[in-house]
Design brief:
The chain is mostly helical and 563 residues long. It starts with a helix and ends in a 9-residue tail after the last helix.
Length: 563
C-alpha cells in the first residue's frame, strides 16, 4: 500500500515539476536564449555532443530528456536539434556506471532537490521586478520538484529488489532478465539506479555476466518510460521526441541483445578486461556509442520521418504554424500568429486569382508565386478554399484568445488586435467575391457581346490590381516610394470602379424603349453588373486595408514613411 501511495505522490510532484520547468523555460523564451540554444545544437554532431556532455554532468538521461521536451515544446529547440540531444543523452548516462565501478561513488541527485527548490523559491519571491530572474527561478523550482518527484517514486519502490529477489530467476531464459530490467527501470524511473542495482547484484554473485548485460539492456529500454510519461499531455513535438527516444532505444537495444551480448565475453578477452563490472559498463557504453554511429548520419531523415508522425488533423492541415508553438511562449506565439496571418493573406490571394480564373504566373514571377502554388494545392476550387479560409480565421482567433490569457503588455495586445483585424478584413474581402461567383461564371460563359466585354474589362482591371497587391505582400520593406505606389493603387481601384460603372450606365442608357426588340443586354443584367462591380470594389478595398494593417504590424514601413 505504501508503495502505491508513494508512487502516486511522487508521480504528482514529478508532473507538477515538469509543468513548472516548462513554464519557466517558456517565460525565458526570448530571441537571445533561442539563438544560444539553436547555435549550441545547430549541427547533428553538436546536438549529440550537447546531450552527452550535459547528461554526463547531471547524471540523469531522464532529466535531460524531459528538459529537451520542455525546450522543444516551448519552441526554443526545433525537432531536428532536440532529437540529437536525446540520442546523445543515452551515451552520457553510462558515465555513472564508470564512476561507480571505478571509485564506488554514487551521485545522489535527490540530495540537491530540496536546496534547489528552497533557494530558487526565495529568488522567485523577491524578483517581481526582474522577470528574467523570476522565470529562471521558476524553471529551477520545477527542476527541483522534478528531481524530488523522481526520487520519491524511486524511494517508494526501493524495497522491490528485496521483495523480488533476482536470484529467484535461477536459470530462466535470458529474455526474462531483459523484461525485468525494463519493468524495474520503468518503476524506479532511473536507468542509472537500475544499472547500480545490476552492478551490485553482479558483484554479489546473484546474477552472472550475461544476465547482468540483459538487465542493463532492459534498463535502457525502460528509461524511455520517463519521456513517454512527460509527453502524454504534451504537444505534438513532445510526442514526436518521445517516439524518437523509443524507436532509437528499441533499435539499439535489440541489436545489443541479439548481436553484441553473445559477443561480450570474447570482446572482454580481446580488450583484456577481466573484471565483470568493467565488462558491463563497457558493454553499456559500447552499444550506445554504436547506436550513435548508426543514427547520426541519418539524423535528418529520421527527424523528417518523425515530423510526419502523429499526423495532422484537418485543422493542422489548414494552418501551417499554430499547432507547433505553445501560446504560453509570448514572443514565439506572436511570431507564430504573424506568420499564420501572412499564410491567410496568401490563401486569400490564391482565392482571388481563382475567382477570376487567373493562373499564378499571370500575376507574378515564378519566385513570387511559389508559396501561393503550395497553398493552392491544399484545396480544390474556390468554394472549398473559402471554407478553409474561414476555418483558418477561426483558428487564428482561438489562438489569439489563448495567447491573450498570458500576461501581455499594451504593445503586444495592440499587435494581436491588428493581426485579427487584418485576418477579418481579408476574409470579408473574399466573402464579397464568394457572393458573386455565380454571376462571374455567367458573364464568363455569356453568349452576348456585352457580357463578354464586361468580363474582359473586369479581368483586365483585376489582373493589374492583383499583380500589384502580390508585389506589396512579397516586399521586405516599403520605402516612401513604394508606399506612395501603394496609396496610388487605392486611387486606381476607385477610378477603375468608377469607369466600370460609367460603362454600365452607358449600357443602361442605350437600352431600347421597344421591349419587343431583341436586346444584347437586359435591365436585369445591368443591375447584376452594378452589383458585381460594387462587390469587386469592396473586395479590393478589403484586401488593401488588410495589407495596410499587416505592414503596420510587421513594421515593413520605412522610418520616413507612414502607412
Amino acid at each position: 500500500m505504501n508503495i502505491i501511495l508513494g508512487t502516486i505522490v511522487g508521480l504528482g510532484i514529478f508532473l507538477f515539476g515538469m509543468h513548472q520547468l516548462e513554464q519557466g523555460l517558456q517565460s525565458l523564451g526570448n530571441n537571445r536564449i533561442k539563438k544560444i540554444l539553436s547555435r549550441s545544437t545547430e549541427k547533428p554532431i553538436f546536438s549529440v555532443a550537447s546531450g552527452v556532455t550535459i547528461t554526463a554532468i547531471v547524471q540523469s538521461s531522464s532529466m535531460v530528456s524531459l528538459m529537451v521536451l520542455a525546450f522543444a515544446s516551448a519552441g526554443m529547440i526545433p525537432l531536428f536539434n532536440a532529437v540529437g540531444v536525446i540520442l546523445g543523452a543515452n551515451l552520457g548516462t553510462t558515465f555513472s556506471g564508470w564512476i561507480v565501478t571505478t571509485i564506488g561513488f554514487k551521485m545522489d541527485l535527490a540530495a540537491i532537490a530540496l536546496p534547489l527548490f528552497g533557494l530558487s523559491s526565495i529568488v522567485y519571491l523577491f524578483s517581481e521586478r526582474r522577470p528574467v530572474w523570476r522565470s529562471g527561478a521558476q524553471a529551477v523550482i520545477g527542476l527541483g520538484l522534478l528531481i524530488f518527484g523522481l526520487s520519491e517514486m524511486k524511494d517508494a519502490v526501493e524495497t522491490l529488489p528485496q521483495l523480488f529477489d533476482l536470484s529467484s530467476l535461477g536459470n530462466m531464459p535470458i529474455v526474462v532478465y531483459l523484461l525485468v530490467g525494463m519493468l524495474m527501470t520503468a518503476l524506479i524511473q532511473s536507468s542509472s539506479a537500475m544499472t547500480l542495482i545490476t552492478l551490485t547484484a553482479l558483484h554479489s554473485g546473484i546474477v552472472d555476466l550475461p544476465a547482468a548485460a540483459a538487465l542493463v539492456v532492459g534498463a535502457d529500454i525502460g528509461t524511455t518510460s520517463t519521456t513517454i510519461l512527460g509527453s502524454l499531455r504534451g504537444s505534438r513535438i513532445m510526442k514526436q521526441l518521445a517516439l524518437a527516444h523509443v524507436v532509437y532505444n528499441l533499435v539499439v537495444d535489440v541489436l545489443a541483445f541479439l548481436v553484441l551480448l553473445p559477443l561480450l565475453p570474447s570482446a572482454m578477452d580481446f580488450v583484456g578486461i577481466t573484471d565483470p563490472l568493467y565488462g558491463i559498463v563497457m558493454f553499456q557504453s559500447s552499444f550506445n556509442l554504436i547506436g550513435l554511429f548508426l543514427f547520426v548520419p541519418f539524423l535528418k531523415q529520421f527527424s523528417d520521418w518523425l515530423s510526419k508522425r502523429f499526423g495532422k488533423d484537418d485543422d493542422e492541415y489548414i494552418s501551417l504554424y499554430l499547432h507547433n508553438t505553445s501560446t504560453e511562449v509570448t514572443d514565439a506565439g506572436l511570431i507564430t500568429l504573424e506568420k499564420e496571418v501572412r499564410h491567410l493573406l496568401e490563401m486569400g490571394m490564391t482565392l482571388n486569382m481563382q475567382a477570376f480564373h487567373f493562373s499564378p504566373l499571370q500575376i507574378g514571377t515564378p519566385e513570387q508565386v511559389q508559396s501561393l502554388q503550395k497553398v493552392a494545392k491544399k484545396y480544390e476550387g474556390f468554394s472549398e478554399g473559402y471554407v478553409r479560409l474561414k476555418r483558418l480565421e477561426t483558428l487564428i482567433r482561438h489562438y489569439s484568445i489563448r495567447l491573450e490569457s498570458v500576461s501581455l503588455n499594451v504593445k503586444q495586445i495592440e499587435r494581436i488586435s491588428l493581426l485579427l483585424e487584418c485576418a477579418r478584413d481579408n476574409v470579408f474581402a473574399l466573402k464579397s467575391l464568394k457572393d458573386i461567383q455565380s454571376d462571374l461564371d455567367l458573364f464568363r460563359q455569356g453568349d452576348s457581346e456585352s457580357s463578354l466585354l464586361f468580363n474582359q474589362e473586369i479581368s483586365n482591371s483585376q489582373e493589374g490590381i492583383l499583380r500589384r497587391q502580390l508585389s506589396f505582400l512579397q516586399s521586405d520593406m516599403l520605402d516612401e516610394q513604394r508606399l506612395n505606389q501603394f496609396h496610388l493603387l487605392n486611387d486606381m481601384i476607385s477610378q477603375q470602379h468608377q469607369a466600370l460603372n460609367e460603362d454600365i450606365a452607358e449600357s443602361l442608357r442605350l437600352l431600347p424603349a421597344d421591349k419587343n426588340k431583341e436586346l444584347d443586354v437586359s435591365a436585369a443584367q445591368v443591375t447584376t453588373m452594378l452589383n458585381v462591380s460594387r462587390e469587386i470594389l469592396h473586395a479590393n478595398q478589403g484586401v488593401q486595408h488588410a495589407l495596410k494593417l499587416y505592414f503596420k504590424v510587421t513594421e515593413k514601413v520605412g522610418v520616413n514613411a507612414k502607412a
